[in-house]
């Protein structure tokens, strides 16, 4: 929950700049105080319940509820830097027909964390495969044109950027910091290798439902 508070606090400059019209927080049956926190901070909270678990379903719900002409998708443990407003304003003005993603960093300055972030940014830049923890900024028009997120159990982020294609993706000149807790808990080598296996399986035609079982 502390990461969610930091995520929402970092959005405040966008409100004062008139860039953010509303903030939609999608909750899928959390058992902590996340919903209350988001509500108290002025967000619209969508409770999709346990049936809505699976990030693809949650992202669809958030996108459908959002009011603006532009959408910014963030995981609840992602925190934007202070200069993000000017970066997004420049993107909207200069590349309205492209989706933008942030450079990735972790709340951990150890060598393994820096290594994983470096590879993630290289993958996004060279292969056009930013993951969801890098955020996504996209116009409503482009989002609707490609069919939006799909209600996949896993790999909803990869599925969407594949449909976008590298030609409609743009790396933004500012970063986003996300939590490294899953790497600290699961292992700095095991988690990346597992993720690579999942990606290979997805490209090889393994269903997202089956991949989700591997993910656990």
From TrEMBL:
Superkingdom as given in the UniProt entry:
Bacteria
This protein's GO cellular component annotations are: plasma membrane
List UniProt keywords, sorted A-Z: Cell membrane, Glycosyltransferase, Membrane, Transferase
Localization recorded for this chain is: Cell membrane
A GO molecular-function descriptor: glycosyltransferase activity
Query: Can you give the residue ranges of the Glycosyltransferase 2-like domain?
Result: 4-115
| NCBIfam families per record | glyco_like_mftF
Please report the name of this protein according to its UniProt entry: Glycosyltransferase 2-like domain-containing protein
Q: Which organism is it from?
A: Candidatus Phycosocius bacilliformis
């Amino acid at each position: 929950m502390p990461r969610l508070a930091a995520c929402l606090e970092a959005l405040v400059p966008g409100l004062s700049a008139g860039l953010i019209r509303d903030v939609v927080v999608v909750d899928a049956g959390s058992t902590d105080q996340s919903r209350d926190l988001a509500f108290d901070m002025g967000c619209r909270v969508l409770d999709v319940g346990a049936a809505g678990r699976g990030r693809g379903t949650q992202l669809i719900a958030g996108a459908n509820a959002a009011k603006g002409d532009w959408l910014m998708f963030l995981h609840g443990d992602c925190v934007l830097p202070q200069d993000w407003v000017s970066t997004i304003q420049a993107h909207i003005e200069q590349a309205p027909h492209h989706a933008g993603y942030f450079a990735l960093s972790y709340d951990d300055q150890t060598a393994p964390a820096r290594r994983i972030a470096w590879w993630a940014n290289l993958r996004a830049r060279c292969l056009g495969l930013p993951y969801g923890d890098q955020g996504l900024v996209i116009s409503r028009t482009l989002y609707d044109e490609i069919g939006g997120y799909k209600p996949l159990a896993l790999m909803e982020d990869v599925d969407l950027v594949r449909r976008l294609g590298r030609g409609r993706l743009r790396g933004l000149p500012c970063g986003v910091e996300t939590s490294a807790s899953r790497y600290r808990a699961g292992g700095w080598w095991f988690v990346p290798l597992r993720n690579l296996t999942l990606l290979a399986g997805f490209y090889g035609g393994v269903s997202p439902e089956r991949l989700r079982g591997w993910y656990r």
